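Exercise 7.
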Amino acid sequence: MYAVIKTGGKQHRVSAGDMLAIEKLEGNKGDVVVFDEVLMVSGDAGIKVGTPVVEGAKVVGEIVAQIKGPKIHVFKMKRRKSYHKKTGHRQQLTTMRIKEISI
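Solution. The predicted structure, written as tokens, is:
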């Protein structure tokens, strides 16, 4: 059984027991998060596709850690103008473990 959920402006395909790194959610380690925006559910009864979400479906996950993603280097330059600028960014992420999918 798997589901497609929407969180942080992205869509993720999840199954029970999966580890997932998503955009930062508020909460501490061990907190339970319920995702209500389930776009699709596939199970024994077949596939249910929502318009835009599947009514009554939810995915329950547990926060494992609050981490930072890899460093992204941004370099801007204009040739022959003596202009260059280097910056970086590390995205805040939440690591989740998916506990259950219910329809």
